[in-house]
Design goal:
Oligomer: heterodimer
Number of helices of chain A: 14
Distance between the termini of chain A: 27 Å
CATH topology of the largest domain in chain B: Alpha-Beta Plaits
Strand order of the largest sheet of chain B: 1-4
Largest interface: A-B, 14 and 17 residues
Number of helices of chain B: 7
Strand content of chain B: 5-15%
Order of helices and strands of chain A: HHHHEEHHHHHHHHHH
Number of strands of chain B: 4
Strand order of the largest sheet of chain A: 1-2
Chain lengths: 345, 207
């Protein structure tokens, strides 16, 4: 598959990769911002409210209002904070979230028309860094993202922040294990870490989706994905009812906004992973085109996160750890072992 | 939301459902069994179903709770006591107030001031009538005591203005003469009860 691609497609230049990176950054930031609007709307509808309505038609320009607010707010750095780390921490969250997206195929590839000056004829690939260890890279980058909340909480000289970062450590570190182990079984089946191979493995229509072969892994991956993106049932890092805002207590303005953008970018990444690894990827389904079906799947997983947030309560940190180490991890290990046996036989 | 729902104050007569909670099993095995039972019972999906049902009801069946306040308003009870209205006689269009001064006397926060004189027909004419809304506690005694149902409580509860005096002159509260057809009889405090006709008895004259 790789060889065929290289033979057919034009050469990927560094200019193309840079353009792709800028496109990903711009569009995913915009989608992440739009995600906040969608989240508010969906949560509001589920509580029989209207949500944002006044900025633009149906509140569509609420993101613009929020952006203006975030950018013009005073940037406060607390007196006793470790100022350097305090300032770097939000960047880590946002940067790792976008670096993880580098290995995710976003939008089809295209060539810039010749008539455009300077950049004419540059081939822009669908995937910024077409590495053959895609899943490993994405999971690794999302795991590195835990340094954002961890350092933020510890640098801000605030006790809520300390509790928040402690919870970051227990939650993200523990659930990394479950994510890795749950996705290990599909990796064994496919025999590759490349997202393209995962997609091709499931090209046989609805019945060949990985979630039918590996239902346990799918559920475990979803649970762990919720925990890693810091979504509600596992929303312990900034649980407003308990620890004010957790690791983000002392943050204001765009520094806080970067945490937010990072969280939403991570949600998109997890949605893409779930769609590509477990739900059939971007193969055509019947008469529906592949690009549309993958967007629908990603949107569904994203909606599921909002839906769950509207429906389910938080759990306590001890319940979180209990669930991770005593329930999910053993199930994941057993799943891997059984998969191995089935493959040998 | 209709007025009937809004007026339903019978708290406790709705069909409440008590949550069955059994004590935590003492043994580890019992707790484990409970976890397994709860896991496969699908209760979490019931929760998801509830929120989805509410969303569908809100979006497609018009059960949205939000009232877009300045544009939409909830119906208020006829017994609501907001800024006063001065009503007119339906036949002649003359104001009902006969200048008896009972409202001025009964007002417990002493906020009504009126001045009257006899006009050319030897009828009492109201020359000055003001309510100091900085003092008024909206108790409704003035509406209750008024023998002519002339001063009543209206539904104007948005009382923000640049000056307190903006509502409180007689002309401000009086029904505009061109809106006489729309003038509604007062249902609230001090009004004639709906079964007033049945309650009337002949004065017993035979001693």
């Amino acid at each position: 598959m790789e060889i065929v691609n290289v033979a057919v497609l034009p050469e990927v230049t560094s200019a193309g990769v840079i353009i792709k990176a800028i496109i990903i950054l711009a569009i995913i930031s915009a989608i992440a911002g739009f995600g906040t609007y969608l989240e508010r709307k969906v949560l509001a509808f589920m509580q029989r409210r209207l949500g944002p309505m006044h900025v633009g038609p149906y509140g569509l320009l609420q993101i613009a209002a929020d952006g203006i607010k975030l950018f013009t707010k005073e940037d406060i750095v607390p007196q006793n904070a470790n100022k350097l780390i305090f300032k770097i921490a939000p960047t880590i969250t946002a940067a790792t979230a976008f670096i993880a997206l580098a290995a995710v195929p976003v939008f089809p590839d295209f060539t810039i028309p010749e008539w455009i000056p300077l950049l004419g004829g540059v081939f822009v690939p669908s995937i910024a860094a077409d590495i053959n260890i895609g899943i490993l890279f994405i999971l690794g980058m999302m795991a590195a993202g835990l340094y954002g909340p961890l350092l933020a909480g510890m640098a801000q000289a605030n006790k809520w922040g300390i509790i928040g970062s402690a919870r970051t450590a227990i939650q993200f570190l523990s659930y990394e294990v479950v994510t890795g182990l749950s996705i290990l079984a599909p990796i064994m089946l496919v025999g590759s870490l490349s997202l393209v191979d995962f997609n091709n493995y499931q090209s046989g229509g609805f019945g060949s989706w990985m979630m039918w072969q590996q239902p346990v892994a799918f559920i475990l991956f979803l649970i762990a994905g919720f925990a890693e993106t810091n979504r509600t049932p596992f929303d312990l890092l900034e649980h407003e009812a308990e620890i004010v805002s957790g690791y983000a207590t002392e943050y204001s303005g765009m520094r806080w906004g970067m945490f937010f953008i990072g969280e939403y970018a991570n949600m998109i990444t997890v949605s893409v992973l779930a769609a590509v690894v477990f739900m059939g990827g971007y193969n055509d389904l019947g008469f529906v085109a592949g690009w549309l079906i993958v967007v629908l799947k990603i949107a569904f997983v994203f909606f599921l996160m909002l839906w769950v947030r509207a429906s389910w309560p938080h759990i306590r940190p001890d319940q979180l750890m209990w669930l991770c180490w005593k329930v999910l991890m053993p199930i994941a290990v057993i799943n891997v072992v059984i998969t191995g046996f089935v493959m040998m036989v | 939301m209709s007025l009937e729902q809004f007026k339903n104050r019978n708290v406790g007569t709705q069909a409440y459902k008590m949550i069955e909670s059994e004590p935590t099993p003492p043994t580890g095995m019992g707790r484990f069994e409970r976890v397994v039972k709860r896991t496969f019972k699908g209760e979490l999906f019931v929760g998801l179903g509830v929120t989805m049902r509410e969303m569908i009801n809100a979006l497609f069946k018009g059960e949205m709770h939000t009232i877009k306040y300045p544009m939409e308003k909830l119906p208020i009870s006829p017994r609501y006591r907001a800024i006063h209205d001065m009503l007119r006689l339906l036949e002649s269009g003359h104001y009902r107030c006969i200048g008896c001064g009972l409202c001025e006397k009964i007002c417990i926060s002493d906020c009504i001031r009126m001045d009257t004189r006899y006009d050319e027909n030897q009828r009492k004419e109201v020359t000055e009538y003001t309510i100091n809304f900085g003092r008024c506690i909206f108790c409704g005694y003035c509406a209750e005591v008024c023998p002519e149902l002339a001063i009543v409580h209206g539904g104007r509860y948005e009382t923000a203005s640049e000056q307190r005096a903006s509502f409180s002159l007689f002309e401000d509260m009086l029904t505009p003469i061109d809106a006489l057809k729309q003038q509604k009889e007062f249902d609230g405090f001090g009004a004639v009860t709906p079964n007033a006709d049945n309650a009337i008895k002949k004065t017993p004259l035979a001693y």
